[in-house]
Amino acid sequence: MPRIALTRPVPPSIAQCELTHLAREPISFERAAAQHDLYEAALRTLGCQVTRIAGQPDHPDSVFIEDTALVLDECAVITRPGAASRRGEVDLVAEALTPWRALHRLEAPDTLDGGDVLRVGKRLWVGMSSRSTAGGAAQLVKFLAPFGYRVSTAALTGALHLKTAVSALPDGRVLLNPAMVGPSLFDGTSHIAVHPDEPMAGNVLVIGDTVLCPASAPRTRERLESSGYATARVDASELAKAEGGLTCCSLVFDARTP
Ligand code: GLY
Q: CA-CA-CA-CA torsion for 180, 75, 87, 96, nearest 10 degrees?
């Protein structure tokens, strides 16, 4: 079955993005857009059908499409992002997902960012970040329990989103930064720690059996390779200044219809 990767263009306003844990520094739109092109090319090389949906030039964070939806095999949940500046991003994403999945929509007052939802098989963890609420996690339970998903919340420290700190690997293990999220949360799930010099390396994007790593994390990539994973790399350093990682820039799912 073809694998779709929905993306959105980098908006020229990206330098006005939300920042939570990073200090603001100049961001080059041209450089960010060029890196984003290479990111999309990497996804194509890994077998994805990349569909770039309409941009929103006045939404500085709109390239970070992951936060607007959670796409599972059975349905998709359109989120209500925690940052008020991002709530206008969801409608165009919902429209783009309509041919592919039955949609649920998170309702106010709760909030949820897709970057806070980690999935390992039928287990989901929702990061209790500044963006996602326990009520948001409870709404996921309501939508997803009928499909057999078990949802837990996860405390985190010093990370914008849960997936800033931890990513699911192709074989059910997780890659994590233990300073940001406690490995004991993932009971029964074994983990690989990021290299201590690369605290932001916990966000990697898995496509099939390949782990796409940020070029800024060569030592963590080495750890993954010596643990037997196939890896690829992409430079996303300009997008990282906007506090976005590799998973943030796409929604990847199998092309099945509702
Ligand atoms: N700048 C990414 C975010 O705050 O959502």
A: 120
Structural domains of the chain ordered from first start: 3-254 (3.75.10.10)
Burial class of 233 by CB neighbour count within 10 A (0 to 12, 13 to 18, 19+) = middle
Two structure tokens written together for 230: 């196939």
For residue range 8-58, what is the model confidence (pLDDT) as tens digits?
Answer: 999 999 999 999 999 999 999 999 999 999 999 999 999 999 999 999 999
The answer, as to whether pTM is greater than 0.70, is yes
- Concerning whether 75 is annotated as a catalytic residue, the answer is no
- Residue to substitute in 17, 65, 161 for testing ligand 1 pocket (most ligand atoms within 8 angstroms of CB): 17
Q: Which residues contact 200 (CB under 8 A, 6 or more apart)?
A: 164, 177, 214, 216, 217, 240, 245
61 lines ligand 1 (CB under 6 A): yes
Instruction: Count CB-CB contacts under 10 A for residue 8.
Output: 25
Structure tokens at 195: 């290299």
**pLDDT tens-digit readout, 113-136:** 999 999 999 999 999 999 999 999
Burial 84-117 (b: 16+ CB within 10 A, else e): eebbebbebbeebbeebbebbebeeebbbbbbbb
161 is catalytic: yes
- How are beta strands 48-52 and 174-176 bridged, if at all? unpaired
